[in-house]
Design brief:
This protein has 13 helices and 18 strands. It is α/β, with parallel strands linked by helices and about 500 residues long. The protein has an eight-stranded mixed beta sheet, sandwiched between helices. Strands 14-15-16-17-18 form a five-stranded antiparallel beta sheet, covered by helices on one side. Strands 10-3-13 form a three-stranded mixed beta sheet. The structure holds zinc ion.
Length: about 500
């Protein structure tokens, strides 16, 4: 498949300068918007973000032709809340799905619901347990298709007897490909009259631990390893710990890279499926990740434990068929909450979205985009582990609030990429700090208050009868090990610190 020149002057948008005429302003004529979320993919393991290993030829090609956001941030560091933010356009405190057993609040209008109201159908594919319909993700999708191998509701196959590693050891890229191909065939068989505009959400799971890529991919990244460490059962493996042998850690990272390349190749094949049906030339693609992954950058492994840069910063690329962006990269701070207004603008419809997200399209289309929000709010809350953190990233740096102790830590950016160094904001009057720090403290308080108030309004509007997670789903989560609190790096499993009153509570 070629993403490039064949499409650049084709049909997707009406405002091209390809013919040599002066470009004119017009709305993109997009028929399909494809949102691809690659689970647990940290930005700095992709070539477009500076990684030297060949993990991402497809992503890099899309980035070269589209717009790369160098400072895109998740709303958290685990799967459930970040996907809820992607599909609601709301910060975690607003959409409500920020604790392990909390579904998206019943009053939240998800993107598929908004699109359905304006006649655009949505189809979703999910491949991990925290995207199950019980969390509210299926709302508004015409079809929301399970691509896990265990099959969430296949009682005989999973139930309480399946070990909790079932989801971690699941290999779902081939299943997603098969299900997407079947769906596309069904669409084609239904005839041209059914070719309505379409939002397609695809969740790819295999970069998430465990790291068990096909062997030929391991050979690309670590052909000379002679040790015995493998990527299976990584959360339970006592060899994977701080201070582990450097060669084994190198191999672990190579296995992660191999999963990324395996998934990048899967994305290439997915795009081929759309291209073979003539759909790519009228498509827009957004690729991101729900969160990153820690490899002892700050002493920990996995995700769902902290709000460090390596789990918060995610890839974000927007690609429009037939339309080169006004710039190749932007360092404006953006968030998952910006995806909903972006998709609505791509379809040129009024979704009646009133969240804090801003469309990413002005960065793509305009030489001088208007100033927009330019920050990202993140949180992680887990009462089981006494964990309650809030972070806000803006163009100057990151402020982290440990809400139980009231500790505030500010890390200024000193160049592109991660904050370098940090200092405690506590202990002196705020007025004695530099202006950037004062603004960061005020900013995080204002932003988290706004999100909480928005959430309270939404929950106040919920209809009676909205239910928490159903008992079947609870049972299956328990079977998968998500509720036992024993995982070192899993979603929902950090250690506790103190329990002083929280700064932002
Ligand atoms: Zn995830």
């Amino acid at each position: 498949m070629r993403l490039g020149s064949a499409l650049i002057c084709s049909v997707a948008v009406a405002l091209l300068a390809c013919g040599g005429d002066e470009p004119s302003r017009a709305e993109p004529e997009i028929e399909t918007v494809l949102l691809i979320s690659i689970d647990s993919l940290r930005a700095d393991r992709l070539g477009a973000y500076g990684h030297s290993a060949p993990t991402s030829p497809t992503f890099d090609r899309l980035a070269a032709e589209g717009l790369l956001f160098t400072r895109a941030y998740s709303t958290t560091s685990w799967t459930l809340p970040s996907h809820a933010a992607m599909l609601s356009g709301l910060d975690d405190y607003a959409h409500g799905a920020y604790e392990a057993l909390s579904p998206i609040s019943g009053g939240v209008m998800t993107l598929p619901l908004r699109l359905a109201k304006v006649g655009i159908k949505s189809t979703g594919f999910f491949a991990g347990p925290f995207l199950h319909p019980s969390y509210g993700f299926a709302r508004g999708f015409e079809q929301y298709i399970d691509a896990t191998s265990y099959g969430w509701k296949a009682r005989g196959g999973i139930g309480k007897y399946v070990p909790h590693t079932a989801s971690h050891q699941d290999v779902t890229n081939p299943i997603v490909l098969e299900k997407v191909a079947a769906w596309l065939d069904d669409e084609a068989a239904a005839g041209p009259d059914t070719r309505r505009r379409s939002f397609v959400f695809i969740h790819l799971w295999d970069v998430h631990y465990d790291y068990i890529p096909p062997p030929e991919y391991v050979k690309i990244f670590d052909p000379d390893y002679e040790g015995t460490l493998d990527g299976r059962g990584v959360l339970e493996n006592p060899r994977i710990q701080p201070g582990m042998p450097a060669r084994d850690l190198q191999h672990l990272l190579a296995l992660y890279d191999a999963e990324i390349r395996y998934t990048d190749d899967t994305v290439a094949r997915l795009l081929e499926l759309f291209d073979a049906r003539g759909m790519l030339e009228t498509s827009a693609i957004i690729i991101t990740s729900d969160h990153g992954e820690e490899f002892f950058d700050h002493g920990r492994f996995g995700h769902g434990l902290t709000l460090n840069e390596e789990v918060l910063r995610v890839p974000m690329i927007v690609w429009l068929a037939g339309r080169r962006p006004a710039r190749s990269t932007t360092d404006r701070v953006v968030s998952h909450i910006d995806i909903v207004p972006t998709v609505c603008e791509l379809f040129a419809v009024d979704c009646r979205y009133d969240g804090l997200g801003d469309s990413l399209l002005p960065d793509y289309l305009e030489e001088s985009p208007m100033a927009s929000r330019g920050d990202a709010l993140a949180e992680i809350t887990n009462p089981l582990f006494d964990l309650d953190l809030t972070a806000r990233v803006d163009s100057e740096g990151t402020l982290l609030s440990e809400n139980r102790s009231g500790q505030l830590t500010y890390g200024p950016f000193r160049g592109p990429g991660a904050p370098e160094g940090s200092f405690s904001v506590n202990g002196k009057k705020l007025a004695r700090y530099p202006e950037a720090v004062r603004e960061a403290v005020l900013g995080i308080r204002e932003r988290s208050t706004n999100a909480r108030e928005q959430g309270a309004r939404i929950r106040g509007a919920e209809e009676p009868g909205d239910q928490p997670i159903d008992p079947d789903t609870l049972e299956q989560l328990e079977a998968l090990g998500y509720l036992d609190g024993k995982e070192r790096g899993s979603e929902g499993g950090p250690d506790a610190t103190d329990s002083a009153p929280g700064a932002l509570r």
